[in-house]
Amino acid sequence: MRSNGGRRHGARATLRPLAIVAVAALFLVPLWLLVAASLRPLGRPLSRGVEWLPRPAAWGNYPAVFELIDLWRHAANSAFVVALAVPLTVVVASWAGFALAQLPQAWRLRLTLLSFAAMGVPLTAVWLSRFLMFKEAGLLDNRLALVVPALGGTSPFYVLLFLWTFLRVPAELYEAARLDGAGALGVWARIAMPLARPTIVAVAILAFLHYWSSFVEPLLYIQSLDKQTLPYALQALHQLDPTNWPLLMAGAALVTAPVVLVFLLGQRYFLQPFRGQGWFGR
Amino acid sequence: MTASLARHRAWSAPCPRRPGYRGQLWLMLAPYLLGLALLVVVPALVGLPLALTAYNALEPARFVGFDNLVELATDPIFRTSVFNSGVYVALAVPLRLLGALGLAFLLFRPGRGVGAGRAAVYLPTVVPDVAWALLWLWLLNPAYGPVNGLLALVGLPGPAWMVEEWGARSAVILMLVWQIGEGLVACLAALGDIPAETLEQSAVDGAGVWQTLRGVTLPLLAPVLLILLFRDTIFSLQSTFVPALILGDGGGPNYATTFIPMWIYTNAFEYLRYGYAMAMTWTMYGLTALLLFGQYRVARRWRLGFADAE
């Protein structure tokens, strides 16, 4: 019985790493092929079959993208949006999460339900109304229109993440700070936030990914090409030269590189919810 | 100034700090609630009356009653878009859910390579929509794309993908099945919430792996799976937009990737028919609500089935 269990365990112990490697490869192959396609020398006729690594690798495709479109300008626009939206999101969402954690149970439940309901509204449903509202407010063709959602914390989900984090902090810690004469802002800044560092990093990363990748909002609200963010510029590049695959893939790789970098730097904060820690661990 | 305010409050209120603190909390909550109201609730409500008008944002809206809805009922492209979105929800949503759940079982327990495996699975999810769609446009190129190249290696004929209707629909499903990182994280978190004792008890009772899965693990995961199902269904109505715009070049071929959001976008921002597009938005709401209700009913029956098996 015991030896049988042990053998079965042994077989699984060797199979599992293999399965993990296979799964990882399956999910990484598309990205590898993105890089491979971006390094294909321009003008070489397309060939059938899979090219895993072009020889010679045409690194010159990357600077060539910058000559075709003003990538630096679009990168600056993206950076502008992210630089404003990410800190705003963290502050507003953590304020709301903190307040929800401290308010009486009844309000907390009601507003949590409201947040869940709001998460269920597809963006598609508000495209049109937001467009008309921004038009009325004179925010159309203004990069600030892309930052506006951050004023409300960007997503109810981020607020809930902070709420769950702050609920895990023993209430006595908040009480003690209050008895020392701290106001709500003081307790938030001195007690709550320093204890919520993993959640802050996770929300900042999620917000960064959201604003950096956002395509529909710039498409709808920004008309001038020189105010557009990177994803839109990539689509413009596609329309400029739809079959120049090496340059298109180089452009896609350039737009993707920052998010991959940020994700890899911070992934442990939201991919490691082993028992009793991480996002939802209670 | 603040000091005098504080003194004033202390003097006027019998118990100064408590209501002050509560008020401060509400102030910290205000930006979020205002944002919800102004960016979600009000836009949704503003849209409702607009659905009963003809409006092109240049002239004032003209009331047309239920004309938009009548036109929707006979609009063949709208009917196609509902069919396309239905196909997507029926195929992609279950695939994404099962994929996330299966990967979570594989990547839950700590072990060698688990962290890297999780990161690898999540990585496609962070790729910006436009870059991801352009990449798949290349991968699925019928003549020179790597996918058909790989299929040829094993002797399979590659489909023409974006040239044929079902090829195009499959392409959109295929590229979105790769982006299931968020589902994976939610399933991992839900697995982490199952008390170890419950699983040990099941093993002590002599339950096999399959019985434990069916009798203990899945029922405990059911609420999270249901939320994921709802979320994926709702988001499938918007996540198909960029693929349709880029892979389908605006919803083609022959409207095969004209999902509901694509047709809303085309009517609103290309034909400037805001009233009609808004009527479509509300119809989409209604259809989604119906769908979620149906899923809820089915899921409830499944959960009862699990309870019976125990």
Automatic annotation (TrEMBL), chain B:
Residues 82-293 form the ABC transmembrane type-1 domain. One of its GO terms (biological process) is transmembrane transport. Its main location: membrane. Keywords: Cell membrane, Membrane, Transmembrane, Transmembrane helix, Transport. It holds the Pfam family BPD_transp_1. It comes from uncultured Thermomicrobiales bacterium. This is ABC transmembrane type-1 domain-containing protein. It is found in: Cell membrane. InterPro entries: ABC_transporter_permease, MetI-like, MetI-like_sf. Belongs to the binding-protein-dependent transport system permease family. One of its GO terms (cellular component) is plasma membrane. The lineage of its organism: Bacteria, Pseudomonadati, Thermomicrobiota, Thermomicrobia, Thermomicrobiales. It comes from the Bacteria. The chain crosses the membrane at residues 25-46, 87-108, 120-139, 145-163, 170-192, 212-230, 242-265, 271-293.
